[in-house]
Each structure stands twice: as structure tokens, then as C-alpha cells.
Amino acid sequence: MMKQRTRGPEYTGVQRPAWELLRNHCGYEYANGSDPDFAAERVSEAEPLLLGRLAEKLREINPGLSDAGVRQAIDALRQPMAAALVDANETCHRLLSRWVTVEEMQAGKPVGRSVRYINWDEPEANDFLVVEEYTVKGPRWRRRLERVQNRRLGVARRRRPGQESRRAKAMLVKARRRWRATKSPTSRPLCCWRRWTSALRRNLTG
Asked: Taking the model in full, what pTM does it have?
């Protein structure tokens, strides 16, 4: 049974409305990070990616991709070529929004292949998930995050109540209005994802 903990104003005023918006209005699948069934999908708390789901979708989006190609695409996200955290974030964003080049063998010769993480041509073919309270264990600390994701790859961290919470609530209201203005039902999940991440980035860096 999942352990119940005290819910404060941050949860009721910001955290819960955030995942309810994505689940109820944007078509996201919802999961609780402390649920044993969901936790069983993870290799460990030190691994932030859901490797099984990620590998499955990589094969769906990139038909014919070999097991070696899948491993290379995953490794590119797990170990981005960057010296600093900001550079690593930029590298991962570039990979997710574009593609990564992997090396495959064809007729006994190595050839390069572009692998996409997101199907931009058919947004409804992507996998949308929001996870409440997703714990990641680092070298020194364990962090509880809120995953707001397309393709199980994006992560958001909550902020303390106060001005940040008011800004986040205003961000949710704005996202709801934009969602209602979206005409194409199939494009709503990806549309919400783009707008949510854009607004979230402004909230975290503003």
C-alpha cells in the first residue's frame, strides 16, 4: 500500500491542478511514482529514464531500428556530451527536438542513421505521461520530482509556496485557456506539451 503523507497548500493549489490539467484535458496518462506497479517498471531510483517504454517507442517511431541503435539512442540521453549541467540540458533538448545519429551495420558496413525520439508528423502516435512524485537518487541526495513528459523524458521540479506558486497557478490558467482554443483533438497532447514546457521554463528561470 502506498504511504500517505501530509498534503499542503502547494499540493492542492499547484501540484494536483498541474497533473489534473494534463490528465483530464490534454490526454496524458497519469501514474503515481510511489505506486509499486509503476515502480516495478524502473531499473532503479538512480535511473531517471523508463528504459522499457523508451526502447519500445524508439522502435515504433523508427521502424527497423536495431537493438544496437536503440542502445545508442538511449545512451545519448543518459550521457550527453557536455561538461556542465546547462550544456547537458541544451544537448538533450536538441536531441529530443531533432534527432540523434546512430551507427548501424548494413551489408557488413557501418552506416549512419538518424533516430527520432518524438514523432512530430503524427503527434497522437507519441506516448504522453505525467508522473506524480517521481523520486530520483543521486550520488548524495534523493529528489522527489514531478515528471511532465512527452516520451517519458521531461522533468519538472516543484518550488516552494509563495510567489512561485502564484505564478504557477497563473500558468495553469493560461494553459487551460490555450487548450480550449485548440481545434484539432489529435494535436492537443503535443500542443499542451509544447506550451507547458515553454511556460514552465519561463517560470523556473524567471
From this structure: 0.66
